[in-house]
Design brief:
Two copies of one chain form a homodimer. Chain A has three domains: about 260 residues, Bira Bifunctional Protein, Domain 2 (BirA Bifunctional Protein, domain 2), CATH 3.30.930.10; about 100 residues, 3-Layer(aba) Sandwich (Rossmann fold), CATH 3.40.50.800; about 70 residues, C-terminal domain of ProRS (Translation Initiation Factor IF3), CATH 3.30.110. With about 475 residues, chain A is an alpha+beta fold. The longest helix of chain A is centred in the C-terminal third of the chain and has 26 residues. Chain A is built from 15 helices and 23 strands. Chain A is globular.
Chain lengths: ~475, ~475
Amino acid sequence: MEKDKKLVEQITPMDEDFAQWYTDIIKKAELADYSSVRGCMIIRPYAYAMWENIQGDLDRRFKETGHENVYMPMFIPEGLLQKEKDHVEGFAPEVAWVTQGGNEELTERLCVRPTSETLFCEHYAKTVQSYNDLPKLYNQWCSVVRWEKTTRPFLRTTEFLWNEGHTVHATQEESEEETIRMLNVYADHVEQMLAIPVIRGEKTEKERFAGAIGTYTIEALMHDGKALQAATSHNFGTNFAEAFNMQYTDKNGKLQYVHQTSWGITTRLIGAIIMVHGDDSGLKLPPRIAPIQVVIVPIAQHKEGVLEKAAELKARISKIARVKVDDSDKMPGWKFAEYEMKGVPIRLEVGPKDIEKNQVVLVRRDNGEKISVSMDEIETKIPSLLDDIHNAMFEAAKRVREQKTSSAVNMEEFKDIVENKTGFVKAMWCGDRACEDKIKEETGATSRCIPFKQEKISDTCVCCGKKTDKMVYWGRAY
Amino acid sequence: MEKDKKLVEQITPMDEDFAQWYTDIIKKAELADYSSVRGCMIIRPYAYAMWENIQGDLDRRFKETGHENVYMPMFIPEGLLQKEKDHVEGFAPEVAWVTQGGNEELTERLCVRPTSETLFCEHYAKTVQSYNDLPKLYNQWCSVVRWEKTTRPFLRTTEFLWNEGHTVHATQEESEEETIRMLNVYADHVEQMLAIPVIRGEKTEKERFAGAIGTYTIEALMHDGKALQAATSHNFGTNFAEAFNMQYTDKNGKLQYVHQTSWGITTRLIGAIIMVHGDDSGLKLPPRIAPIQVVIVPIAQHKEGVLEKAAELKARISKIARVKVDDSDKMPGWKFAEYEMKGVPIRLEVGPKDIEKNQVVLVRRDNGEKISVSMDEIETKIPSLLDDIHNAMFEAAKRVREQKTSSAVNMEEFKDIVENKTGFVKAMWCGDRACEDKIKEETGATSRCIPFKQEKISDTCVCCGKKTDKMVYWGRAY
């Protein structure tokens, strides 16, 4: 089995150089490729199929919670972007500008959307007149552009794919409820489909989205101890409504401003999947979004009946799972390594001896366990094994997060954790921007969120010592 | 029933002003809205749901024929666009240029993709090495931009949504087979899902896609007698392969150029649905892509048991069709008009008298027919009625097309048809560009396609009188 090692050996071990390990997996598992457009990536079929599964599940959840999909233009005229002061300050420095259309120089520049609040506002201002028109619960799937200086595939690219929900409501209470509802939709998706445990909480004022009165987030922890913001949900209150004059007539005939939210999740989730679950043999895909859930590798496939049996098994399994047979003329060991690299949750081996015994061998990607299963039982065993793998991956990720979550009561401890232990730091905070800035300056860690589930680490702010009961998750982040 | 008339009266009758009728429907049925971005439209939920149904069916057909989805960057560097001579000549005059990213002036302009051949070529040149890597069958769903001077919602907009398939093959034979296969996939979709009959054929050299050696098309006829190109499929031969150096090693170790195709269908299909099926009461949606297939309108809904029965029927029907109950406090007549405008294929009326008789009334949008059906039978009646409606709509569209298809043997006849009868003109053509240009100049009609199913109209070119056996469909077109 020289050959199957070769593929694996080309990956840099995770502990040696995590960034290089990440890049190696993206290349070897054929997830993305560079293009000649600076900072933009090509999403290859295997990764795009993951995105389709993510999108399919989220879209179902969005529709079940009453949302409708729409499509807004990809361009925003400069004047429209400038209508909300905080928003334009936040985004203008990082947008791409179209200045020429065909052979004509444009009189007003168009930015390629970094996010579409302004377009939704303009549309809602026109279409919402009375309380009968509320709420409006719209979502769109599209790509957006942010002119990034340094980029990494999936994690930070000039263009990325995402969903952006934009809703308007009659009251502040309703918009707040929606903001939290959609955060929970994201959290459930990430935990139940991607097997990634998340911390749910609110961003500090400093880390809020440009124009929001409240930003909620789900934060995940990667294998190298760095945090990743997996999704955000924003409550804008009436900030945009006032700037865009989005008003409705209430039941008493009085003009009121609408209350607005937005929420989004991006292709960086694929980066999170790699960095939460992967190992030195490659990807480990959460079964529920894996493009291939079961790969059938025929053993001694030149022997009579083997390929026929593999095809027969494929036909049966295709009714309950996403399945592929690899009957190419590569050596089985080579195939094993290839599908380990691609993170396929279950490998099914079937050879002449198995056929004799009316059994197959199932090998789990997550823990390497081999199980012999009667051929008569595959329809029940495979779905339950996929669930087991999901649960085991979720628990494993949770254990890593727990190992890499520490509490600090003073700056000494805080710095020591960030530098030596890595991971999340739980620490009390007084609420002052000055302390938040100082923590970042001295440790490199940013506030990740004020978790909904508060804990008491101490009585005083980890930075200034002022009395407080607010606990915050901190960490270095992607 | 004054109220239900009001909604209808606001539409311009089709025969009075077809263009205004089209615009009125788009507004009244809430399909699209204008934005402050010149030439770009907002696709509203009802139209977007149609697009999702179109996309879902096509995506399934693409995958069944072995294609995989990917995502390419939305930007193309100017140098890359210029690599294939014909291609850049065709597209450069109508692209939007990004010249600034963040605060920096770009050293090389980026165009917003008008189509992505060049990016796919660059990627294939890197990833295809040997005959083992072929064919590559990729598709992407995205939006593209073409800087149009005059625009109309769905039919011609600066930005539009589409699919673009891009494939590479070992031989010319295989790429030709793929080009025709995908044309047929489109034709089947348009006929079987949208109930729009199409003519399948090849474009003349003049009407070919920039860079192609052969372009195939499906052409549909609108209610006003103008043609609409519903989809195209192109064979590039080795044109791009030579420009981008896309080579592979064949079985004999020899370097060969790949043979390439591309094919696309766009949101203009929604325009076609409006203009093929609609009438003076509004849209008529083909049942298989209608967002709402059955709308339940409760009659005398304040009476005991009516709303409960409506809800019960909805629960039952939702298992077999896309169904909605309108229990708002509008008058039934008003609701009738509203769902006629929205083109919902079946209206189900249920009131106290119906409940007494254990029946419901089904009203067909396509021909106005009313049918009383026992409540026990709705699970069988509704699906078969939806099929009947589909078939009837297809046949009605075909009849209109046949009525508006004429043959011309000389230019007199040709001009007379275009000016007075409108519709398709079948006429013989010698194959010379000069005659094609002259026909356009004198009649305004362009060659729509050289149909696969040839007919003999006469022995000689309709324009120059030269002997020929090539028959062409001509017409004014959107």
